[in-house]
Amino acid sequence: MKAKYFKKSEEEKIFFSALKTRVNDKLKHKAISYGDSRFWFKGLFWTLICSLSYSFLFLDSLGKIKFWLMYVVFQLSGLLIGFSFGHDASHNTAFKNKRANSVLHFFSFLTVGIDPLLWGLRHIRSHHLYANVEGSDVDIDKNPFLRLSPTHPWKPKHKYQAYYAPFVYMFTLLHSVFMSDWVYLFSNEYDWMKRGVPKAELYFRFIVYKIFYFSLVLVFPLLYADFSWSFIVLSYLTASAFTSMVFIIMLVGTHFFDGADYPQPEGEFLEHTWAVHQLHTSCDWNANKGWARFLSGGSNCHAAHHLFPNICHTNYSEINEIIEETTKEYKQPYHHKTLVEMMFSHFKHLHKMGNP
């Protein structure tokens, strides 16, 4: 990763100072850095749905269609556990104790298949620092299928990417499980990301996690569910594809949307301060809707999350309005759309990136 420096702008520093003061004043009588009753209710709700749907897979009376539906619910609710519990745990905002956060983080990702430690390292050390910066944000690394940034090289196939992108997105989770995780673990290119974590711990946790994951999603159903191995594997693949699409719908447009900035440094310096950089590269969707926060674990409030990652996501509802008002007052960007508008904006962006 190429480390960059953010611009030292007094005007932008004054803006962020005012924003932090207003947020702190709004939340000063609350314990905001760790999970509250809303946080635990939501996470335990999805955990209950996930556990019940998984237990139904082993009922003798279950037909194929019901088995497949229960498998989809199991995978989807498992993803929402990751949104509700795992994301906050990776930022140490679920518990005061870091070890407890690490344990919750591990188990919250069990049905998703993406190694939680590797994901957490790249999410915090790369993406949260340098969102949308080529060569510094791992999430915007070049890929062989889609041109997501104007900094990526153009190829003729990209003219059609707005049409074939949904098929690529269906394999997002499977690609992470079977390819990306292994690259992040074994490639020397990502040593910067793993710095400070003993290799023995990385390998041990990786192996244990993958054993748990494959046992849960494939081995136990193959051994104890009353269906053929081919049908169970097909259920796994199709449920993963469906879950990947939900994952992409909620997240891909928060950074890859029409109007997003993809900053390139002048020498070692980026154009804006860290806080204003986050606003130029993030988009909220339905930020003031309770159902959206419930489903996405606060990921729909992307500006709040990037600006205040040390605050538990159940508090974002109380600071979105402050962010909107303060950015307007100080003439800073704030991107906000409905979920449908964000997805249209994403495909508009794909279409633009498809032009040479």
From TrEMBL:
GO terms for cellular component: membrane. One of its GO terms (molecular function) is oxidoreductase activity, acting on paired donors, with oxidation of a pair of donors resulting in the reduction of molecular oxygen to two molecules of water. GO terms for biological process: lipid biosynthetic process. Keywords: Membrane, Transmembrane, Transmembrane helix. The keyword Membrane applies. Residues 67-337 form the Fatty acid desaturase domain. This is Fatty acid desaturase domain-containing protein. It comes from Flavobacterium reichenbachii. The lineage of its organism: Bacteria, Pseudomonadati, Bacteroidota, Flavobacteriia, Flavobacteriales.
